[in-house]
Specification:
The chain is mostly beta strands and about 220 residues long. The protein has one helix spanning about 10-35; strands at about 45-50, 60-70, 75-80, 80-90, 95-100, 110-115, 120-125, 140-145, 150-155, 160-165, 175-185, 190-195, 200-205, 210, 215. The longest helix has 26 residues, at about 10-35.
Length: about 220
């Protein structure tokens, strides 16, 4: 008895059409992945960093960054006072803020960039030069210069002590030097002044020292 069921068979032209169709699908998926690459990390909510005032345990000020993912806007607050507003974009691990210019104060629009690291935002401007070993204590020197030309030098010693120097901006000025101890906990470096006053933590990012970072609340 003959099998009357027709076997599905593609003629050469149909093979070509099928191959093109498959290639279009693969290309479309690849393009979608590329387009989504810059959106894999989102920023939403509030991030904060507390700064002790003059090393005091009782006085401090908290700086906040509040992000609205729907509107693509942000707000920077020092305590309850809003200092900056603007828009932001996320590309891979980089967060870029563009501030609003203010005609009443003459402030111009500027760009601020952060590195996104888990629940932290690391200010790229305060990412020091120099490398840190993975040890709990170590000998190392890290330097950084901010947008105003102010230079900062951090020297770590293997005995658990450190020196933090803010270089004078002018030749006739005096450097400001602070000394204390440090303790490493994973990627965090906790600091204490020689007089026992607290200091903000450092963060170690890819073997480099991050001087300022904000934590998601």
């Amino acid at each position: 008895m003959k099998d009357n069921k027709k076997k599905s068979r593609l003629v050469p032209g149909e093979y070509l059409v099928a191959a093109i169709f498959a290639a279009v699908i693969v290309f479309g998926v690849w393009m979608a992945m590329r387009a989504d690459a810059g959106k894999r990390k989102s920023v939403e909510g509030t991030y904060s960093c507390e700064y002790p005032i003059n090393g005091s345990q009782d006085k401090s000020i908290t700086v906040y960054y509040k992000f609205d993912a729907k509107e693509g806007t942000f707000e920077e607050l020092w305590g309850e006072r809003t200092l900056l507003t603007g828009s932001y974009t996320v590309e891979g691990d980089t967060l870029t803020l563009v501030t609003d210019g203010k005609e009443d104060t003459g402030a111009k629009s500027e760009t601020i960039t952060f590195l996104i690291q888990d629940r932290l935002l690391l200010d790229r401007q305060y990412l020091y030069e120099g490398s840190l070993p993975p040890d709990d204590t170590f000998d190392a020197e890290c330097t950084m210069k901010d947008f105003a030309g102010q230079e900062y030098i951090v020297r770590f010693a293997k005995d658990g002590s450190y020196t933090y120097t803010i270089k004078a901006l002018s030749a006739d000025g005096d450097d400001k030097v602070m000394k204390g101890t440090y303790e490493r906990e994973g990627d965090l470096i906790h600091r204490t002044n020689a007089d026992g006053g607290p200091m903000t933590d450092f963060y170690v990012y890819d073997g480099r020292l991050a001087g300022i970072f904000y934590t998601k609340e």
